[in-house]
Amino acid sequence: MTGRIAFQGEPGAYSHEACIKARPHMEAMPCDTFEDVIAAVRSGAADQAMLPIENSTYGRVADIHRLLPESGLHVLDEAFVRVRISLLGLPGAKVADINLVRAHLVLLPQSANFLKLHGIKGVSAADSAGAAAKLAKTKVAGEGVLASSLAGEIYGLDVLAEDVEDHGHNTTRFVIMGREPQHERRGEHGMITTFVFQVRNIPAALYKAMGGFATNGVNMTKLESYMVDGSFTATRFYADIDGHPEDPGVRLALEELDHFTETVDILGVYPRDPSRDI
């Protein structure tokens, strides 16, 4: 596959790493915001979008559930990236030379034990890959960056230590989105259907809406709620289920869901990534 895939962040960000892993033959296109990523695909400047949706340590990515239903795009695939944190420094530097590191706020507590062990102070930055780019320009002695090894390669920094995170399970799940849906069955590990719905304002509406999935043996792997337009009475739900809409159980469950909801919108039908089982 050729073309462009847009991602949020600077070159070397974990979203960039996801693009290289999942779409190695596409040109990765950095964007400032998630909205810019979506706009790039809608305008034709990019063919696909790589968007982080949740992290195994920190939960869902802020604002992403609000953006996806209104994006006009469709989920084509999912991708998982294990967040491996490296200590980057200026060429020739050693771990003992580093007294301060900059990194995105979420990376600092993940490497707390390593920083404490080496007496290194952590300072938050808006973007870890951006911090790597800045260090490469400013060349401040004694400073380092916590980021991906890819960022080190891009900006000419040395990898002083690898896998400095405290726990080895931190993984980010991404969805790959495009302008046209692809609902055909594909892949060898089953299918995932992602949809959003808004329940009717009646007693036990959510309970009744979910009943069809239980009675039809459909496994729901994700269910999250968020408010619509700041209203306390209008709640939208985001869900992932195992299966394809044409599967008998899924078809019946979705039909039952329709009876108890104001709206149901399928965001994507795509192959189940085997990384889910790791």
From TrEMBL:
**UniProt cross-references to Pfam families, sorted A to Z:** PDT
Q: Where is the ACT domain?
A: 194-271
Q: Which UniProt keywords apply?
A: Amino-acid biosynthesis, Aromatic amino acid biosynthesis, Lyase, Phenylalanine biosynthesis
Uppermost EC category:
lyase
Question: What GO molecular function annotations does the UniProt record carry, in alphabetical order?
Answer: prephenate dehydratase activity
Prephenate dehydratase domain residues are: 4-179
In which pathway does this enzyme or protein participate? Amino-acid biosynthesis; L-phenylalanine biosynthesis; phenylpyruvate from prephenate: step 1/1
User: From which domain of life does this come?
Assistant: Bacteria
Q: Which CDD domains match?
A: ACT_CM-PDT, PBP2_Ct-PDT_like
Protein's recorded name? prephenate dehydratase
Q: What are its E.C. numbers? A: 4.2.1.51
What InterPro entries has UniProt attached to this entry?
ACT-like_dom_sf, ACT_dom, Preph_deHydtase, Preph_deHydtase_CS
- Xref: SUPFAM superfamilies: ACT-like (SSF55021), Periplasmic binding protein-like II (SSF53850)
- List, alphabetically, the PANTHER family matched: PREPHENATE DEHYDRATASE P PROTEIN, PREPHENATE DEHYDRATASE-RELATED
Reply yes or no: does the keyword Ribosomal protein apply. Answer: no
Checking NCBIfam families in the record gives: PRK11899.1
The record lists the catalysed reaction(s) as:
prephenate + H(+) = 3-phenylpyruvate + CO2 + H2O
